[in-house]
UniProtKB/TrEMBL annotation, chain A:
Species whose genome carries this gene: Schleiferilactobacillus harbinensis DSM 16991
Protein name: Uncharacterized protein
Automatic annotation (TrEMBL), chain B:
Protein name in the entry: NADPH-quinone reductase
SUPFAM superfamilies assigned: Flavoproteins
Domain of life from the UniProt record: Bacteria
Domain Flavodoxin-like fold: 1-168
Molecular function (Gene Ontology), one example: FMN binding
Amino acid sequence: MMDGEQQDALAAAIRQQAQQTADYVDRAVLLELADFAEAQQRRITTTGGEIDGRSWDHEHW
Amino acid sequence: MRTLVLIGHPDLAHSGTQAFLQAAAGALTDADEWDISAQGVPDSAEILRLQGEMRRYDRLIFQFPLYWYSMPGVFKQWLDTVWTTPFVSGRPGEAPPLAGKELGIVVTFSQAQQDYRLGGREHFSLSELLRPIAALGLAAQMQLLPIFPVAQFGYMTERERQHLLVTYAQYLSLPAGAHFADRAQWFAAWLTQHASAHSDYAAWAAALTAQQEQLADLHDTLAEMRREEDDAL
C-alpha cells in the first residue's frame, strides 16, 4: 500500500514522463493521468479522514 | 462496447475542431466514424444497408457544429432520409431496431459555454435547444447520454485541449454513467497497452489499480459505519 507522499511522487513521476514524451496523444493522456492520480489520492485522504473522525466521535463511544 | 460517431459538418475538411476530435477517437478508441455529409443522397437499398450497419453498434454519437441553435441542415437532411419511421419506431408488434442502444451528442460551438443558460447571452441551455434530438432518441427507445459540449475550441489553451482529447475519448468508450472507478480502469488499461513504451507503465497501472481498491475498501468501511450509526439512532 502506498501512502499519500508516495502517491504524490507517482503523480510527479507521471508528469515528468509526460514532459519527456514527444507524442501529442501520449503526453495528453499522461498529464490527465497525473491529475487523476492526485484526485484519487485526495479521495483516499478525505475518506480516510472521515473514517477517523467518526471513529473518534465520543458520542459514539 | 461498439461506438459509431456520425459526423455531420458542412465543411468537415476545413474544421480544425473536428480534425482534433477525429484524431483523438482514432488514437484512443475503437469507435468507427461516418462522415454523413459525404454520403450524398442514399437510395432505398443504401438506406437499408446504412440502417443495418447502425444496428451493429451499442452507442451512436451525433457529432456536429451548432448552426442557428440546431444541427446543420446536412445532418437533418440525412436523418430525415435515413432514419425512416420503421427504423425509429419499429414495425407493428416489434421493438424499434435501436431500442436499448445509447445516443450521445457531441456539439461544438464558438460561443462561451456559459452563454447557453437561463439569463446568459443566448438565453437557452443546450439541453433545451437540442430537445428534438432527445425526442428522436426516446422515440427510438434509446438511452440518452449527457451532452458533450465543446465550446470555443479555437480559444482553448494547450492544456485544455489535452483535457478535451482524453475526456472526449472517454465519452466515446466508457460505460454510461461512468464512475471514478471506471476512469481509473481506463487509465490503467491505457498504461497496460503501452507498457512496452516505458518501463514504469506496468507498475503505474498496478499502483493506480491498488489505490482504487484501497478507495473502494474505505468507502465500504465508511458505509458500514454509517449503517451502524443509523441503527444506533
